Amino acid sequence: MNEAIINSKKAVVSEIAEKMKNAQSTVVVEYRGLTVAEVTKLRRELRAENVDFKVYKNSLAQRAAVEAGADDLAKDLIGPNAIAFGDDAVAPARVLAKFAKEHEALVLKSGIVEGKVVALDTIQKLATLPNREGMIAKFMGCLQSPVRKFACAVNAVKEQKESAEA
């Protein structure tokens, strides 16, 4: 094989491995049966969530998975696959699962979440979570709830004392 071809393939393997290591979440999907229009729509939805979605040659992706320390992911890299890389741990799973509900041809397989290879059931559980901003809003609501209840209790005591004095 030509030395230039080997070097270009090594560069692609390194690129995929780096993306797998640096992404908060990586999801592998099979896209067999999707039309070009459907794939374009999916890419647009993923891009809106800042998710990188690419199709790589399986042999290169398998080598990259091994290089990234995700040996278990290599077994799912069979057939026409695409890989979604996200900075948010939830975004790729949420967008892909939503799209898979509407289009049965898209099949979620497995992925990597925060450096650990996870199975399909974990990906589906992640898909039910809100995005980062939504989680922060829920957390802030939980923090405000006890303070609000305390303020209401203090106000009720104040009103009770005022009505007793009157």
SSE topology sketch:
Layout: H1 3-22, E1 25-30, H2 36-48, E2 51-54, H3 58-67, E3 81-86, H4 91-102, E4 107-113, E5 116-118, H5 120-127, H6 132-165
Antiparallel strand pairs: 1-3, 1-4, 2-3, 4-5
Helix pairs in contact: 1-3, 4-5
Q: What CATH first level of the largest domain would be assigned? A: Alpha Beta
User: What portion of residues belong to β-strands?
Assistant: 15-25%
Based on the structure given, which CATH architecture of the largest domain is correct?
2-Layer Sandwich
| Average pLDDT reading | 83
What would the CATH topology of the largest domain be?
Answer: Alpha-Beta Plaits
Q: Kindly state the percentage of residues in helix.
A: 55-70%
As for the number of domains, it is: 2
The total count of strands amounts to 5
Main sheet record: 5 strands, antiparallel
- Sequence of secondary-structure elements: HEHEHEHEEHH
Rg is 23 Å
Q: What separation lies between the terminal Cα atoms?
A: 97 Å
How would you sum up this structure, described in words?
Helix content is 58%, strand content 16%. It is α+β, with helices and mostly antiparallel strands and 166 residues long. It starts with a helix and ends with a helix.
Short description:
By secondary structure, the protein is α+β, with helices and mostly antiparallel strands. The chain contains six helices and five strands.
